[in-house]
Amino acid sequence: MPWLYLMLGLVLGSAAGALVALWQARGAFSRQVAAVQAQAQHAIEEARREAEASRREALLSAKEEIHRQRQEMENEMRQLRRELQQEQQRLQQREQQLDRRMEQLERREEQNRRREEELEALQQQAAALVAQQQMELERISGLTREEARQEILRHAREEAEREAVQIMREIEMAAREVAEREAKEIIAEAIQRCAADHVAETTITVVHLPSDDMKGRIIGKEGRNIRTFEALTGVDLIIDDTPEAVVISAFDPLRREIARYTLEKLLADGRIHPARIEEMYAKAEKEVDNIIREAGEKACYEAHVHGLHPELVRILGKLKFRTSYGQNVLKHSVEVAHLAGLMAAQLGVSVEVARRAGLLHDIGKAVEDPVGNHVQVGMELLRKYGESEAVVHAMSTHHGDYEARSVEAVLVAAADALSAARPGARRESLEAYIQRLTQLEAIASSFEGVAKSYAIQAGREIRIMVHPHQLDDLATYRIAKDIVKRIEKEVEYPGQVKVTVIREMRAVEYAR
Questions:
Q1: What's the Cα-to-Cα distance from 29 to each of 17, 208, 366, rounded to whole Å?
Q2: What's the rounded Cα separation, in Å, for the pair 251 and 59?
């Protein structure tokens, strides 16, 4: 029996162990199922987040594409507006040409009408003469046939001669009027062509572009690049339909040269924006200063003048960008030095003094905003930088301001006159034009608070930059009106002059 109980105990223990093992396996399975469900839920959440991120990225990409297409459309619309404006300008020019032709036709019609009236008057006079002749015939009807015939022939001859003389005088007067009018038109047209060609050669510079696409980049968004360029350089940048080219217009050759260097550097760099324009303008100023110094040294070498003070050489180089009556002042100075030196050698006087005085006689013209005329300014410069009194005196008499006390002084004056008087050396109209532009800038710069002033558009506009911390907005309007009054009072000019005063305020801070 004991063994039976033992077997029964073993069976019951095994059954209990199996039940416990089954219960533990069921719990482990439940935990595994819960873990799998949690992983599935986490995967679903991850998938939802990735789908939401993909949806947002797609939406952002779509918005960016829409914005890009909108920008392209706006650029196309802006280009179309510019083309439309240019076409309108061309149509206006054609309308003006048609108006001028209509005026010419009206004048011709008026002339024809006057001629018809004159013919009618002559016909009336002829009718009156016929009536008078008939009355005269009635008076002399008592004469013999032969006497009457002779009397009629005499009166007819006298009237015919009188009318012939009158017609000849009228024809002569009409021919003289036509000849004078046509001669004036021919002379005026010749002067205009000559002045236009000369001014075009001396007041503009053409800069070639790699492609026409650069024109839009030069103009910049809403014109900010071209406004910054013109404000810094003081030139007028003309961007028209000329393929792959823009035109820099300014009466001051030095200002135009700096603008050309600036624009060429910007085109080579490719980055065109206001900050870059200011940076390239500063570099261009330095390069042009080097060109000025090299031009002075070259002029000294060509004139065989040595030992000049370096500052005098630099000031002399500025004459490369100055003209006098259309004649380049630096070339004129070298020519005067050669002529004076040759004449001094023939006469056996100091060639060195004659050459130095001839080369330096117009150096006062290189000084901006001088006090006094260029002769007085030149004398002060030469004395300041150690030139001898013989050279100072020789250059001081070339315009007759001082009495010549040496042969060299007379030779310098003669050489100056020879260089200026040779055919084609000078043009009076261009000098008057430049003097007027210089006078406009001088009037604007004389007002307190003005930083820079530039005469542009061939003197039809003057652009003025003022110090924003010295003048407020009301003072800016007032200074514009004051400048206009001064110009109307002191300057003679055709048409009208537009005065633009610019007050630009900048605030700059640095984050550290």
A1: 18, 84, 103
A2: 56
Q: Domain extents for the chain?
A: 13-110, 111-202, 209-289, 311-426, 431-502
Q: In the 8-state DSSP scheme, what is residue 306?
A: -
Q: Judge if pTM exceeds 0.85.
A: no
Q: Can you tell me the distance from the alpha carbon of 434 to that of 324, in angstroms, rounded to the nearest whole number?
A: 9
State how far the Cα of 77 lies from the Cα of 83, in Å rounded to an integer: 10
The class level of CATH for 311-426 reads mainly alpha
Q: How would you classify the pairing of strands 450-456 and 461-466?
A: antiparallel
What's the N-to-C CA distance of the chain in angstroms? 100
Q: Which residues on adjacent β-strands are paired with residue 461?
A: 456, 498
Q: Which two tokens stand for residue 141?
A: 């009807």
Rounded CA gap, 477 and 320, in Å?
38
Start-end of H helices in 221-273: 224-233, 253-269
* Cβ neighbours of 467 (radius 10 Å): 12
The answer to whether the beta carbons of residues 359 and 316 sit under 8 Å apart is: yes
3-class state of residue 248 by DSSP: strand
Sequence length of the chain is 512
**Measured on CA atoms in the order 115, 116, 122, 124, is the torsion positive or negative?**
negative
Q: How many CA atoms lie within 13 A of 387 on its CB side?
A: 32
Spatial distance between the Cα atoms of 355 and 207, rounded to a whole number of angstroms:
38
In terms of C-beta density within 10 A (0-12 exposed, 13-18 middle, 19 or more buried), how is residue 30 classed? Answer: exposed
Residue 191 has pLDDT above 70, yes or no: no
| DSSP helix/strand/coil, 211 | coil
Q: In angstroms, rounded to a whole number, what is the distance separating the alpha carbons of residues 240 and 256? A: 18
pLDDT tens per residue, range 49-79: 888 888 888 888 888 888 888 888 889 888 9
Q: Report the number of secondary-structure helices (H) and strands (E) in the chain.
A: 14, 8
Residue 194: predicted pLDDT: 30
Could you check whether 311-426 and 431-502 share the same CATH topology?
no
Per residue in 462-508, pLDDT tens? 888 888 888 888 788 888 888 988 888 888 766 678 889 888 877 77
Question: Helices 253-269 & 274-303, crossing angle to 10 degrees?
Answer: 130
Query: 431-502 has which CATH code?
Result: 3.30.300.20
Instruction: Tell the CATH topology of 209-289.
Output: Ribosomal Protein S8; Chain: A, domain 1 (3.30.1370)
| Secondary element (H or E) of residue 470 | none
Beta bridge partners, 455, equal: 462
CB atoms closer than 10 angstroms to residue 417 = 14
